[in-house]
Design a protein that fits this description.
845 residues; mainly beta; 22-stranded antiparallel β-barrel; 4-stranded antiparallel β-sheet; 6% helix; globular
């Protein structure tokens, strides 16, 4: 911490020489040099004669540097300083401290003990019995017997009056902590000048972050370095760049180990303490042989994640009066290593599990472009002819140990784009027309594309009444693409498991290849209208995107394969209003933005045999492709219903389940509204960001599992319910009138209200609305001007993800399943979101 405080108040070691551009020079040195230049030609005082002449400064000049010579050419003047060579230096330092806490979590019951019903009574059953349920007697009715017991230092639990009189404890399990992180960033910019001209430029950026994560026993760090050097040789600019980054974590989450620890922490009965002792003999000490102690998973687990990346590039660009040309060569090398293991004795892995995954990505690219300006006698009309070419050679290699399983992917691709950009301006009206064609060639694509047209048309009206400015534009593009070979698709391994099988989850199967696939074709149309008046700006954008031959992964014949299987259409609307520099009073100004977003993606066609193909989730509840439905609808089992849609009630009075897959939820929201406001008062600025999402649904599998095991607050509050009648119709068609008891001790525990349909119950029952209002950011910044504003000092404090109002109970509905892509709307012990409190110091010199 002491080093962090020192860095936050890093002293000024370097001072900056500020360079400003000047148009009119009236110094004595200037006047004297002008006399020398023109005095021999013009007998009249040249300075007096030049008072009505405006010169344009060519190049750069520092007003605090003595003048060596002046040179005029036409209406341009070039000033050379007396110093032939000098170096300018500037930069910044930024230091940040952040404190993170977890946001809301599912509510648990702490009233009932581990156990179940037995012969008409509720019995406590200890960890040695393998009991998973918390449907035992009330904790208040139990006490310790005081005898030695390996699962609790106070002994076994017995009915009150039969032990030592010490009441049963209620243990609270918390694997989370307030997590502290600190980061530092230093930027240095320097330039070498010769006679006032910048000849060389050097930039350097260094960054370091050390971070604790909110889950205990888990931390990480990152380092980065980037630099560049550039120079101008007449009409040629040469620039070289290099970037290095490194990230280390003690525990990655590719196999969901963090979610697994979170799941076990929530499901641990209120009468068991995981932290009293983690191990027992050669194995772990847990509340059941079929469950894990979360600390056994997290502590000294010998897991790890490492990543480092190198990126180097060389840029050449030249410019003449009519021609521009450039070329960028870049090489990227990235390596990842995941060590994932479970120690012997872990539930589902009695002998332990070890995975060593190494991934290496290499990408070499050449990007080149040529631009030719075409001149016309009519000054209102301008045209540029542009030719762009991109060559890419990508290689990805993934290796797994101990299986010695290796995957190799290679792609060589070329993009070629020819474009004509024309502009016509007259009488306050500007017309822009861009026409072009693209070509895409790849060795992994079964069909190369040479006709991919692009058209952009825009109108701008500047001389409308009332200082209005109107922009109208429209575009149509056809784009072909392929899936990136460096984006792993191992997350689809999860589709082979039910939630009850997750303890055996091990993602080691990659896609078998990317070859012989048709390109994904997107036809995009966009229409935009913008209107500005003084400090008000209105913007509207409507777009539609038709995608053909979309590629998705699927398991066939024991392999993960890619298939062209679906066509989709996306339609969206974006509206925004911006109010800039609105003056409220003499010292108070505001910037305000209000935005509205609405979109929908529909699956218009699915290839024969692939309808209802899962794309994310589990084998029993998943997001999928369904022709005629929105993309990624949730599918699972549902209530059994009659022809009129009424829920069918069984002879025991409980609803019946229809086990055939049904569409039960849609994750796409109706709309999203965002509001951002910044208030400026003297040297203070205050920024807030608010977001409202209306509509959208999610499957709350976390609630389903907590209900099943009797750990949810719902089961604690409702398990004694009797005489309840479910709405619906009986199997004979009559209105249901059968009263039920939610949890009858006279019956087996597996027949109660929450356990009768298995671990995740009837999936339709756990579909929830995910509307929310979220206060995303609150930020206060204070600016201090140093040395006549040549140096700046900023102090900022902020809070992120502050408040969330939502009918969805449990974790933030925006969290992802096992941190995997495309899983929004599926919640099965998703890690909670975090609230961040931060303080930042930035010094610019």
């Amino acid at each position: 911490m002491k080093y962090t405080i020192l860095l936050l108040f890093f002293p000024t070691l370097l001072t900056a020489q500020v360079k400003t551009r000047v148009d009119h020079v009236v110094s004595k040195d200037y006047q004297q040099q002008i006399r020398k230049l023109r005095g021999g030609i013009d007998p009249v005082d040249s300075v007096a004669n030049a008072r009505n002449t405006t010169y344009t400064l060519k190049g750069q000049f520092s007003p605090n540097v003595a003048i060596r010579r002046l040179k005029t050419t036409g209406d341009e003047i070039q000033i050379s300083p007396s110093l032939s060579r000098y170096i300018t230096l500037s930069g910044s330092y930024s230091g940040t401290i952040e404190l993170q806490t977890h946001n809301r979590m599912p509510r648990l019951q702490e009233t009932y003990a581990q156990g179940r019903s037995d012969n008409g009574s509720l019995q406590w059953r200890g960890p040695e019995t393998g009991e998973l349920f918390s449907y035992g007697p009330a904790v208040s009715s139990l006490e310790f017997d005081g005898n030695p017991y390996p699962y609790d230092q106070y002994g076994k639990l017995v009915p009150s009056g039969q032990g030592n009189g010490k009441a049963a404890n209620i243990y609270t399990e918390d694997i989370f902590r307030p997590a502290l992180s600190h980061s530092h960033q230093m930027k240095i910019q320097s330039a070498l000048h010769r006679y006032g001209h910048r000849t060389w430029t050097f930039n350097l950026k260094l960054a370091r972050e050390d971070k604790q994560f909110i889950i205990r026993e888990n931390k990480g760090s990152s380092n980065s370095l980037s630099s560049d050097i550039s120079t101008n040789i007449k009409w040629l600019t040469v620039k070289g760049t290099y970037m290095f980054s490194q990230e280390i974590r003690t525990t990655g989450n590719r196999n969901g180990i963090l979610n697994r620890a979170y799941q076990n922490a929530l499901l641990t009965p209120a009468t068991f303490d995981n932290q009293q002792q983690v191990t027992l003999g050669e194995g772990q000490r847990s509340y059941s042989a079929e469950a894990d102690n979360p600390w056994f998973l997290l502590r000294d687990n010998d897991n790890g994640y490492k990543e480092h990346e190198h990126n180097a590039a060389l840029t050449l660009s030249l410019q003449t009066r009519k021609w521009q040309a450039g070329m960028i060569q870049s090489l990227n090398d990235k390596q990842e290593n995941n060590i994932e293991q479970f120690r012997p004795g872990t539930s589902g892995w009695n002998a332990g599990m070890y995975t060593d995954r190494n991934k290496r990505d290499r990408l070499y690219m050449i990007q080149s472009n040529v631009v030719r300006e075409i001149e016309y006698n009519n000054n209102h009309f301008k045209t540029k002819a542009q030719l762009h070419h991109i060559y890419g050679n990508a290689n990805t290699r993934i290796a797994y140990l101990p299986e010695n399983k290796t995957y190799n992917y290679q792609r060589t691709s070329q993009d070629l784009f020819l474009n004509m950009a024309s502009t016509y301006t007259a009488r306050g009206i500007t017309i822009k027309l861009n026409t072009g064609n693209k070509a895409y060639i790849s060795n992994t694509c079964s069909r190369n594309s040479f006709l991919l047209p692009a058209l952009d048309l825009g109108f701008r009206f500047d001389d409308l009444p009332g200082d209005l400015v109107l922009d109208l534009s429209s575009s149509y593009h056809v784009v072909n693409s392929e899936l990136q070979i460096n984006k792993s698709l191992t997350y689809t391994n999860l589709l082979q498991y039910t939630p009850g099988q997750l303890f055996n989850y091990r993602p080691v199967t990659e896609v078998n290849g990317y070859s012989q696939l048709s390109p994904i074709q997107a036809k995009e149309w966009n229409g935009k209208l913008s209107l500005s008046y003084q400090n008000i700006y209105l913007d509207g954008n409507f777009y539609t995107k038709n995608i053909s031959n979309d590629v998705l992964p699927i398991y066939e014949n024991g392999q993960l394969q890619l298939k062209n299987m679906a066509d989709m259409t996306t339609k969206g609307l974006e509206l925004s209003i911006h109010l800039y520099n609105k003056s409220i009073s003499r010292n108070i100004n505001t910037n305000t933005t209000l935005s509205f977003f609405k979109y929908r993606t529909d699956v218009t066609k699915v290839r024969d045999g692939y309808n209802y193909t899962p794309i994310a989730g589990f084998s029993s509840v998943y997001k999928t492709l369904v022709e005629g439905q929105p993309l990624g609808v949730i599918v699972g089992n549902a209530y059994k219903r009659d022809a009129a849609g009424n829920i069918v009630i069984g002879d025991d009075g409980f609803p019946l389940a229809d086990q055939s897959p049904k569409v039960i939820g849609n994750t796409i929201p109706d709309f999203v509204i965002k509001a951002s406001n910044t208030i400026f008062w003297k040297k203070f600025s205050v920024q807030t960001n608010l977001e409202w999402k209306k509509g959208g649904q999610a499957w709350n599998g976390t609630q389903a599992a907590l209900d099943y095991y009797g750990r949810s607050a719902t089961t604690g509050a409702e398990r004694n319910t009797t005489g309840y009648v479910f709405q619906g119709v009986k199997q004979d068609g009559h209105v249901n009138d059968i009263p039920v008891v939610f949890y009858d001790p006279a019956k087996p525990v597996t027949s109660n209200r929450w356990t009768r349909n298995g671990l995740t119950g009837i999936a339709e029952e756990y579909i929830r609305r995910t509307d929310y209002i979220r206060l995303n950011t609150f930020n206060i910044t204070y600016r201090i001007n140093l040395k006549k504003s040549h140096q700046l000092f900023y102090l900022a404090t902020y809070v992120q993800n502050i408040l969330l109002w939502s009918p969805y109970k449990g974790a933030d509905p925006g969290q992802l399943l096992y941190d995997q892509p495309n899983t929004t709307g599926l919640d099965y012990f998703n890690l909670p979101a975090v609230k961040t409190f931060g303080f930042n110091v930035t010094y610019q010199f």
